Structure of D-glycerate dehydrogenase:
Amino acid sequence: MKPKVFITNPIPSEAEELISRYCDYEIWEKDEEIPKEVLLQKVADAEGLLTPKGKITREFLQHTPKLKIVSNIAVGYDTFDLKEMEEKGVLGTHTPFVLDDTVADLAFGLIVSVARRIPELDQYVKVGKWIENSDTLFGTDVHHASLGIIGMGRIGEKIARRALGFDMNVLYYNRSRRRDLEEKLNIKYCEFTNLLKESDFVLLMVPLTNETYHLMGEEQFQLMKPSAYFINCSRGETVDEASLIAALRQGSIRGAGLDVFEVEPVDKNNPLLTMENVITVPHIGSATKKTRHAMALKAAENLVAGVTGKIPPNIVPELRHLIQ
Ligand code: GLV
Ligand code: GLV
């Protein structure tokens, strides 16, 4: 008998095909999110779960006596309660590598868009307000500006590579110093507070953990230059959003480009949505067809390995010891 698995969202056909070869599977195909009671009923006898954002909590795991693996279709796994998964011996996997360049492209898109005010000026043109040669259209140069990247992981590195092409001066802060990259990419390690003080663009690319929760708050925004921009492509909870809103209102920073929010979907009354100097996108860092397909396929491979007694290729580092 094939192992039983549950999939919480529609997935591309190649991923589904792979799973169908090895597993007895069911997919929640509806557009709306699966209701919690239905999910708990579906996973009661499942050995594997494939999901892009399912919260794996202590309570959830009390309903999944047979569960061996949760395969996340995302690189971030802040939705996992790692301690509980470890205790129950449930493996967790994610989808690193395949999305790095795609997220870095978006990060750069946000930098250029906010600095050159592309969405705002797009609206000018579309409502017939064409004005040439006016200083009201002026933006800020990206080339030769300093970019401070907080979090020099795989995606941070890809962003730094792009910054080289723009002749930017790249500073970075990371938990562990990346001497291997310093010469190769001409980037400079900087203490966190110095990075905030010196950068024209501060870009956050850290995973959400207890240490990075509200990493950016009132004090940190105050340290930034009033002419600087803040870009977040990581997780909304790494920023104390009330402090970001206050900083933008007071002019302690010039603008922001945001792919993520403290609460998602973002509340339509969130003041960030009505600020001209803030650019927003709905958590789409990895959202190209090619990359999302690659992520789904990788997640399917992890899932199949986890329920067929093989070692999944992308177990999250904190749970790797479970298979040793
Ligand atoms: C997206 O945010 C991801 O973690 O893959
Ligand atoms: C994510 O994959 C990172 O290491 O930045």
